[in-house]
């Protein structure tokens, strides 16, 4: 299987938890346009205690990948009232024969053979074309120095097994020098990966006490210290200089903004303006310090007081509104996507990557639907997005008339689940109103009875019942009115 399209990659991550969002933010599998991406990555799967891959749900709404990994068989699997999201996701290939579908795997060290074997089994069962590794990050956050070697061993075993089954191996990796150096054996990764998705975003955010662009293409002129490393150009060159072929790198662009509340002590509103609190949560993503591009453009369309500027020497916009809780957001728009895709082309990269498809303007409220993704792909390829081929019709064959018939389409609805029972108010994610350090995953067994699994949030995080994710504790407590026992 070819890892790249002839005119460049357009890798689109899909955050499956967007199905739980409200109003115009709700995004299920069927909202995906299968023509605009060359590779679709379903986020996420994870490891069970037995080191076997499992269907899981997690959050990427902070600077680091939070270890808030939640089993979500209700959304992703068909069994026991499930919504079959994996199968419906891969059914998109019926509309685009060239589409490559990949399952993203959040990971830590594990028993490799058990993990590899279970991964192949699951990918085959749901007709995925490959696996994306998202270990953030080897040797970091409780890891061990030897994990740098362990990661390459895992990639080697996965690469061998996947390629033997005509599948591909990709990985999402850091753009930060201070993470790259201890975490990655770049030549070893280059040997085993088909595509490397460079997460060139979240370089700044509300964890900084000042404003800055989270995904600047180049260094801001006033940057000093470690901030001089926090830009896309540095990251791309650092990976290439370290031994990663440019033709394996997909440059990541965020389809969301990082946001702060400007401090009241000053009227500064450019880069490095004092801002000690995260910006208010949006109506769809509902996570402080984070707004989807769809939320930002809708605010700007409806409210005239939003100011949009580009800092001297930079290519990306930032926007602020004093009426909207003094919010300040750095983000990417149509024009900055053109510049980043043009840059990637000039560096002979494999193509582009986005996190994530469900926060583009997919309804077309502010312009054409999925404008940022389409702009990245059109600019990199130098032409219009081609009309995708459809799979050939399978010729009819003679079958046993007495054999049971199978459904030709994947079910999109399920019978109504049982009524609430104990901690389980519904299938899927359930908050504990008295304790935000954990939550419950509720699934239905073969007898249609709820089974609850306790999932703990990582240290420094709390469960945000508004967004159904574990997020930074200060961001959750900034919402107000939730987690009273943990935010006092």
Automatic annotation (TrEMBL):
Keywords: Chitin-binding, Disulfide bond, Glycosidase, Hydrolase
An example Gene Ontology molecular-function term: chitin binding
Gene3D superfamilies associated with the record: 3.10.50.10, Chitin binding domain (2.170.140.10), Glycosidases (3.20.20.80)
Cellular component, GO annotation: extracellular region
Compositionally skewed regions (Low complexity) per UniProt: 395-413
One matching Pfam family: Glyco_hydro_18
Region annotated Disordered, chain positions: 379-427
UniProt KW Disulfide bond keyword: yes
Gene Ontology terms: biological process: carbohydrate metabolic process; chitin catabolic process
Origin superkingdom: Eukaryota
Domain Chitin-binding type-2: 421-479
SUPFAM superfamilies: (Trans)glycosidases, Chitinase insertion domain, Invertebrate chitin-binding proteins
Domain GH18, chain residue ranges per copy: 8-383
Family: Belongs to the glycosyl hydrolase 18 family. Chitinase class II subfamily.
Protein name: Chitotriosidase-1-like 2
